[in-house]
Amino acid sequence: MEIREMQRIVDEWIKSNTPGYWKPSNMMLRVMEEVGELAREINHRFGEKPKKAGREEGNIGEEIADIIFALLCMANSLNIDLEKAFEGIMEKYERRDKERFKRA
């Protein structure tokens, strides 16, 4: 699925299920909340902090998808074409870091 399609799907869902997009500052807090949930799952699975006994293992893929959803909402509310922005950032990385991480 292309990013524009993801943005369209999210926009349709927001329009049919909510009063509208939150303010950008509230959406940024939502992104940070979702990143925190992903960090907790990564820490439980790969870090030094195991889950408490009896607690179900979280789904890292779903946590990443929650972040993507929140970012798509933010982009939509700010009229940002994420596909175009992503293409631009990849061009930047290609120029700047083309040789940076190659093994000797």
Beta content? under 5%
H and E order: HHHH
Question: What's the helix count?
Answer: 4
Q: Kindly identify the CATH topology.
A: Helix Hairpins
Radius of gyration: 17 Å
The CATH homologous superfamily corresponds to MazG-like
Name the CATH class. Answer: Mainly Alpha
Note the overall shape. Answer: flat
Biggest beta sheet summary: none
Into which percent range does the helicity of residues fall? 55-70%
- The total tally of domains equals 1
Low-confidence stretches: none
The CATH architecture classification is Orthogonal Bundle
State mean pLDDT (0 to 100 scale): 93
Distance between the termini: 36 Å
Work out the number of β strands.
Answer: 0
Task: Output the structural class.
Answer: mainly alpha
